[in-house]
Design brief:
Blueprint: H1 2-25, E1 31-35, E2 41-42, E3 48-53, E4 64-68, E5 81-83, E6 86-90, E7 98-107, E8 113-122, H2 140-171, H3 178-203
Parallel strand pairs: 2-8
Antiparallel strand pairs: 1-3, 3-6, 4-7, 5-6, 7-8
Length: 204
C-alpha cells in the first residue's frame, strides 16, 4: 500500500500548489505606489496623478480619479488613462495651498472595483484659480437639499459603476474563475483516490 499512498500524497501536493498559484491571481488589485504619495508635502503643484498597482487594471468606463482641493474644488481634468498596472489622470493647474485628497476607483484585475483615498499637501499656492466657494447666501434648507441631491447622484453613479463592473467581470473571458480550479482539483483528487485504491487491491 505504500506506492498508492505515495501517489495520493504527490497528487494532493500538486493540487495544493496549483490552487496556490490560481488564488492570488483572483485577488483584488493593491496600490503599491502613487505620485503624489500619501502624506507628501509639495512646494510645486503636480500636473498629473499616477497610480501604480500590483496587477494590470481593466480598461473600463468605471475607472475614475478625483482630486479635491482645500475649498472643495475638483482639480482632476481630462481622460483617465490605463497602461497595464499604471493609471494616470491629468490635473488642471492647482491653486490654493493646503491639503488635497485624491480619490480613485478602478476596475480590478478580478473584475471588482477597488477604491481608496490619498492625501497630500501643497505648501505653496499654484497658478490655478478655484472655481469659487458655494454662495454663502444660500439658505440652510437649500444647502440641505443640494447635499441630498448630491448624495443621491453619487449613490446612483456608484450603483451604475458596480453594475458595469459586474458586467465586465461576466464578459471577461481571459480570467479563469476560482470555482473552476476548485472543481478541477476535486475531480483530480477523486480520480487519484480511485486509482490508488485499485492499485492497492491489485497488489493485494
Amino acid at each position: 500500500m505504500r506506492k498508492p499512498l505515495a501517489f495520493v500524497t504527490t497528487l494532493a501536493v500538486a493540487l495544493l500548489a496549483m490552487l496556490g498559484a490560481a488564488l492570488p491571481a483572483s485577488a483584488h488589485n493593491v496600490l503599491i505606489s502613487s505620485n503624489p504619495a500619501e502624506g507628501d508635502e509639495l512646494d510645486t503643484a503636480p500636473t498629473e496623478v499616477v497610480l501604480t498597482f500590483d496587477q494590470p487594471v481593466e480598461e473600463a468606463d468605471v475607472n475614475e480619479v478625483a482630486v479635491i482641493g482645500p475649498h472643495g474644488d475638483q482639480w482632476a481634468e481630462g481622460v483617465v488613462e490605463v497602461d497595464g498596472a499604471t493609471v494616470t489622470a491629468p490635473l488642471r493647474p492647482l491653486g490654493p495651498a493646503g491639503e488635497y485628497v485624491i480619490g480613485y476607483r478602478v476596475l480590478s484585475a478580478d473584475g471588482h472595483p477597488v477604491s481608496d483615498e490619498i492625501r497630500f499637501t501643497l505648501t505653496s499656492p499654484g497658478p490655478g484659480e478655484a472655481s469659487g466657494a458655494p454662495d454663502s447666501a444660500v439658505s440652510e434648507q437649500g444647502e440641505r437639499g443640494e447635499a441630498t441631491g448630491g448624495d443621491r447622484a453619487q449613490s446612483e453613479q456608484s450603483d451604475e459603476a458596480d453594475r458595469n463592473a459586474e458586467a465586465a467581470n461576466d464578459a471577461d473571458s481571459e480570467g479563469v474563475p476560482v470555482w473552476v480550479w476548485l472543481a478541477g482539483a476535486a475531480v483530480l483528487l477523486v480520480v487519484g483516490l480511485v486509482v490508488a485504491l485499485r492499485m492497492g487491491r491489485s497488489q493485494d
